[in-house]
Amino acid sequence: MIDAYFIHLLILIGIYLILAISLQLSLGYSGLLNLGHIAFFGIGAYVSAILSLHGVSFLLSVLIAGLMSGLFGWLLSIPTNKLKGDYLAVTTLGFSFVAYAIFQNWTEVTRGSFGLPGIPRPNIFGVDFSENTSFLILVIIFVLISYFFIRRICNSQFGKVLEATRDDELAAKSLGKNTLKLKSISLAVSAFFAGVAGSLFASYITFIDPSSFTFLNLIPVLLIVIIGGLASLRGTILATIIIILLPEPLRFIGLPSSILGPARQIIFALMLILIIYFKPRGFFGRVDLE
Amino acid sequence: MLKIENLTKKFGGISAVNNCSFEIEKGKITALIGPNGSGKTTIFNLISGILKPDQGKIFLDNQDITDYSVDRISNLGISRLFQQPRLFKNLTAKENLILAIDNEDTKLWKNIFGLNKIAETKQNAVQGILENVGISESKNKIANDLSFGQKRLAELARTILNPHKLLMLDEPVGGVNPKTKKGIAKFLLDLKKQKQTILLIEHDMPFTFFVADIIIVINAGYIIAQGPPREIKENKEVLEAYLGD
Asked: What was the ipTM of the complex prediction?
């Protein structure tokens, strides 16, 4: 029993880690206050679920889900490319509300509030991943691929030019960098991996409905990035583990379910206040939170 | 090399630049001087594409660049030093300079597959210019931790490293201590010897008159005189408007 619960937590940590490091790319490295990340997670989950339910193989579903989310990331970057700070945050937040409204109201495809049940667990080249233990191995593989790909970007000169754009966009332009294109690429790659995380989430839970893709669900991911520290991937790993595990003891103290959710939010809020007060750059952050 | 034709820029009802025309010759240092608020930096912003003029044209080597974006203008060979330090504050001084060398760093796949190695020639170029401006010992410091003078020097080095035909320097010795000022002045004289084409804004008049080949005097958005330093020094209108006695 404990083993199954522990494996469940590890799977959640893996999925959230992909979601958080992909947000770190757009927020921490590129300085894009992107509050639409949960929409890309949702797009990935729905695309993958619908394809899987129509018999498309898991790997192809994940790839198409990632590409669709990436495409929406790129499309979102077109009207928002010249926006900064609060304006970008509000616009991308608006995008997440639009995506939620589509998940909720395009009932022919998404079944709205009834959700999509019976999403099959992965089967790759005859290898079955329906057991949680084997699914965990699959998640670990995806985490490693996503982590090394994003780390590769961040540590390369491309990552440096993203950081330059974050620090001073006009100065980067004055060195001949096409910052609009750079920001579009960053948002698209970030959205791609959020889509991959969404795809894993859908096939793990085997049921999705729009309530998993609201702004409230982005809060723990934002918290991970802030607590781990902007532009720090190792901080993101540590923060993901803490944020996923921290509210878990609440399950064992017999709180009614109506209190459990708000109690989690209170813990997150307290954590954020403490971190911003005592360690404004998070665990390993290299950049000030502005 | 650079030709400005009837450039006008208004902010609200106020004209910052009024029907200005001038040319910058290759291999010469041209200085823009004038009181604070006379429109010098606005002209810089218009040339580098940060602002778009209400009227007039800007030509670089006979190519109309008036409506080009900032990055496109930079890639055509105009490299600019800003009035206030604009280093990438969370990168090291060296990383700041490496970004100026070329645009290979903007190619995602090339960088992911490790095909954009920082070649020895690039490393040498960065090291050479860091030594020239005298901050090589601080190359691995985060830009935010550099002193004001070091920031100015690092930014000057970055501006020069950015491939260019024309250097636009907005108050390169502004706000630095006398020692750093001397270093920057020496560096500019070296650039003059190398026959670099420079457009300069500077308030230090003895220095400007010493280093510049051509001086353009601007007042309230209007060009009131242009010519060699000797002529400008004797121009009555300039003396009244700006230089005083």
From this structure: 0.92
